[in-house]
Write a structure and sequence with these properties.
The protein has 27 helices and 19 strands. The structure holds glutamic acid.
């Protein structure tokens, strides 16, 4: 009998170790995981430890992506798509690093990754009490929201003052409930070291994006630099490679099916704790609008770039990012429909309401919460189209975006620092300007004119009661005789806002001077202000109310489910674990979790995006895989699939084995897993990475960059 129980228990243990779990664990929750049982061969202190170097010191937040240190000299491994903007910015028709790839033969040849920064998490501390103190005394919701923002800024400013050189951030873990202060080492000099040609780094392009099986070599190698004394510094010739406290061991042994893996990184956003009303709004209003609008722009930019490589190059990063979101949203929309997510959430919410009704005190306290949330989403839905048109006017139209930034900079910078919008605070202003100048580099007059025209066409069709009055007035949208084309053309002809020198000077001028400046786009932005400001105020009010209501709804759910939750992703450091595992995307179909180089030859057509370089195909055919060949598959693995819990922002996350050694590089999810952001499920949640052996093999054999393997400490001779 005892033996039987023992057998059952070991069976249960080994089975449970085989199942994956939902969970992007923040540092504060690491202690809740039974690491050994889950499959780790390291301890929580090996992952994060404020007293001694630990794995977290090797993980960086790289813009909206993740990366990891893989050498003592600041070498960073991340995705090709994460370095894309830097590669595009450094390229021109003559030096086309996007098409041909880039390799720095020595440190002096490494190129600045313009606008890129690196953060490394140092510490975290709960500051909820300070953020939320006496908030209930504020009945005006816009005011409430502003107070929360202001307190977050105050805590940040204090922390940065106490820790010179560091970057602080107060992250919202649970809306209106939990706030955590993170301290980051913040590096501002990042350079390109190795980037494969796009025909490897983005093999399969948009056709294969968000799909499995995958054969994309989506990796690139960067290096972080610091001042000679090791402190963070802006890009400068005499900076030296940054020496991280910890770097990852890269293991050429790779992984096999069913192996345990875990990921560390900075996942961006998930929406799992939101109500059915938020979800319905996303499904029927927000995502369809954005997907259509992005698709329209993609077609336009692809069309305009057809004849000329320099133009196509300028559009390339924008098209890629629009297309990435567009396809992701289509995947999510399909998933929301297939899983009947809104209907299921409504069912759960009805049960919770019934639970509240059983208790008078609970009903009095929480009974109206859900309906109040519904009212906000109804309000949002009613004006969504006009609100999106107005906000995309200053986002999608570059000339208006520049004018808006200059205008707001002048206005905001006359306020006290903590009162300013975040982008214009002293700590962010240089970055804001830098980003604008990078965008200016890619400015295209023809595309901009057409995008503006399309938004005006949309605004002209808005129903009565939803009109954007300042736009109507400015562009005579109600007048059937109007001639937009002429007015727009004239404005672009007269525009100064698209000139670098003008912009540099404009950033130094007072608000009064800017208001008087004779530039058509600055004038337009000024005329649009009443509507822009009214929309901002409405958003503040809705966020303030949602913040209060969401906190209350979370309390209800805790009472009902008697459970604690893991916070939704919010770009802070997280851990997730699982296994290399296949899945069944459809009836009678099973997808194996490892692809190999054979698939590259199968998919190759010679036409982009399936145009593998000749040299790569020859190397594959020659089977010259050497010590990197998989012992189980007897060939070179390329892509790996695993049931971890990831989202955008996990791009570039290292895939680690049970001992914490680097075995792969995360870059995507399967199409059916895009819905993961709303609900994780073992049956469909699958993330995609590049097998480290393929990366090492490309560096060694394709690029002839054996020196990089040396730097990683890999014996390859
Ligand atoms: N490929 C994804 C993106 O670019 C990143 C990873 C993910 O979302 O799973 O957004």
């Amino acid at each position: 009998m005892t033996k039987f129980i023992f057998l059952i228990t070991t069976l249960f243990l080994s089975l449970s170790a085989l199942f994956a779990e939902e969970g992007m664990y923040p540092l504060s929750e690491l202690h809740t995981i039974d690491l050994q049982k889950a499959g780790f061969k390291i301890s929580a202190a090996d992952i994060f430890n404020q007293e001694a170097p630990s794995l977290s010191d090797a993980i960086v937040k790289l813009g909206g992506c993740t990366g990891s240190f893989i050498s003592p000299q600041g070498l960073i491994l991340t995705n090709h798509h994460c370095a894309f903007r830097a590669v595009q910015t450094a390229s021109n028709a003559e030096h086309d690093y996007l098409k041909n790839g880039f390799m720095a033969a020595g440190r002096e040849q490494e190129i600045e990754a313009k606008g890129y920064t690196v953060r490394i998490t140092q510490s975290f501390k709960d500051v909820s009490a300070e953020v939320l103190k006496d908030l209930d005394a504020i009945s005006d919701f816009a005011e409430r929201n502003k107070t929360i923002k202001r307190r977050r800024k105050e805590i940040t400013a204090r922390a940065e003052k106490e820790n010179p050189g560091m970057r602080a951030e107060v992250a919202e873990m649970f809306k209106g409930q939990t706030y955590v202060l993170f301290l980051y080492t913040y590096l501002k000099d990042v350079r390109l070291v190795y980037v494969p040609p796009i025909s490897i780094g983005n093999f399969g392009g948009e056709t294969d994006n968000w799909e499995w099986p995958r054969h994309t070599g989506d990796f690139s190698i960067l290096r972080a630099y610091s001042a000679p004394d090791g402190s963070p510094a802006e890009y400068a010739a005499d900076n030296v490679p940054y020496q991280p406290k910890k770097y990852l061991n890269v293991t050429p042994r790779g992984v096999d099916e069913n192996d345990f893996v875990f990921l560390l990184g900075y996942p961006g956003r998930t929406y799992r704790h939101r109500t059915s009303y938020f979800t319905a709004y996303e499904e029927h209003v927000h995502m369809p609008f954005v997907a259509d609008w992005y698709q329209w722009q993609i077609h336009l930019l692809e069309d305009l770039g057809k004849e000329d490589r320099a133009t196509a190059l300028r559009f390339s990063a924008t098209i890629k990012s629009l297309a990435n979101t567009e396809k992701n949203y289509r995947g999510k929309l399909r998933g929301l429909g297939r899983l009947q997510m809104v209907r299921k959430k409504r069912g759960q919410e009805a049960q919770i309401q019934a639970f509240l009704q059983k208790d008078e005190a609970l009903q009095r306290r929480y009974g109206a919460v859900l309906n109040a949330i519904k009212n906000i989403y109804d309000e949002k839905t009613n004006s969504a189209e006009r609100d999106y048109i107005l906000s995309y006017l200053t986002r999608s139209v570059s000339a208006l975006s520049f004018a808006n930034t200059v205008y707001k900079a002048a206005e905001e910078r006359e306020k006290e620092d903590l009162e300013r919008e975040s982008a214009f605070m002293n700590r962010n202003f240089e970055r804001t300007k830098k980003r604008l100048f990078i965008r200016l580099q890619n400015f295209d007059l023809q595309a901009d004119e057409l995008i503006l025209t399309e938004l005006l066409r949309k605004a002209a069709q808005l129903p009565k009661g939803q009109r954007i009055k300042s736009m109507d007035r400015l562009f005579s949208l109600n007048n059937p005789e109007r001639d937009w084309q002429k007015a727009i053309k004239q404005a672009y002809d007269d525009a100064k806002i698209t000139q670098k020198d003008f912009l540099s000077k404009a950033f130094q001028q007072s608000f009064e001077q800017i208001q008087k400046t004779n530039d058509p786009f600055l004038q337009w932005i000024q005329a649009l202000q009443p509507d822009i400001k009214a929309l901002k105020e409405k958003n503040e009010r809705q966020s303030g109310e949602l913040s209060k209501l969401s906190a209350q709804w979370a309390e209800v759910k805790r009472l009902y489910e008697k459970n604690t939750f893991i916070p939704d992703a919010n770009s802070t450091f997280r851990l997730t674990y699982g296994h290399i595992r296949g899945y069944a995307p459809a009836d009678a179909v099973y997808n194996f979790p490892i692809t190999t180089v054979a698939g590259i030859l199968e998919k190759h057509t010679g036409q982009a995006p399936f145009n593998a370089p000749d040299k790569l195909r020859q190397l594959i055919k020659a089977k010259a895989f050497g010590f990197l060949q998989s012992a189980t598959l007897h060939t070179m693995p390329v892509g790996i699939l695993y049931d971890c819990d990831t989202t955008g922002g996990n791009s570039g996350s290292p895939v680690l084995n049970a001992k914490g050694e680097l075995v792969g590089l995360n870059f995507d999810r399967a199409f059916g897993a895009t819905i993961n952001d709303f609900a994780w499920d073992e049956s469909y949640s699958r993330s995609i990475g590049v097998d480290i052996r393929y990366i090492l093999w490309l560096l060694q054999k394709y690029a002839g960059a054996g020196y990089l393997l040396d730097e990683m400490g890999i014996d390859h001779n």
